[in-house]
Amino acid sequence: MANILDLLMDGDNVRKNNQNISRPYIFYHICLFISSILTPGTIFLLILGAIITAFPSIEPWAALLFNGLPVAIFIISIFLAKEDTQLLLAAIFSTIYSLVMLVVLIGLLKEGIESQLCSVTTVFFCFVAGVFILAAIMHPKEFSCILHGLLYFLAVPSMSMLLIFYSVGNMHNVNWGTRESKVDNNDGSSAKMIQRQFLGQSCSIGDWCR
């Protein structure tokens, strides 16, 4: 997010110095930055609504407390606790939220059956699932990755809420994340093998896209 913000704040100079950067590209990153900010709150409300749907006997304020307490504890730990403690809490809350996401799935299925697939939430869920299914069909070599979709669904709160909080609170830590690494230029056999394998191919369908 910090890199995107840096790009947006200096977007005019970046476009002048790099002809590959266009206005639509800058606009895309604006949308990406806004969605990154809204994602934690959206996931929080999604879980809250699913708990209320799956368990009508639970009062909304109780569901809000149940959902907000782990988030509040984790945010406080980011400022007060050591990094190891933060990671431990993240692992514990990720496990808890995985169980909650099972409840979310049950709530979505229940709402879909009761509304006969006419619910906005159900349509949106089917649309999101359809995007991944379509991507899997278009990339048959990686089609088996669609089997991990359930794990992706269970990990949504962890990666879209807890990870955002952790990354913002630990921006001073440069020991994790994507960093450039040295490449051994003496042995280019692996690169040449990959180049021969995918030469002239625009996607994983292979020879069909030469």
Automatic annotation (TrEMBL):
A biological process from GO: chitin biosynthetic process
Keywords: Membrane, Transmembrane
Membrane topology of the entry: Multi-pass membrane protein
Protein location: Membrane
InterPro entries attached to this UniProt entry: Chitin_synth
MF-aspect GO terms: chitin synthase activity
GO terms for cellular component: cell periphery; membrane
First-listed, main subcellular location of the protein, grouped into a coarse class: membrane
Ribonucleoprotein recorded as keyword: no
Name of the protein in question: Uncharacterized protein
Organism: Magallana gigas
Taxonomic placement: Eukaryota, Metazoa, Spiralia, Lophotrochozoa, Mollusca
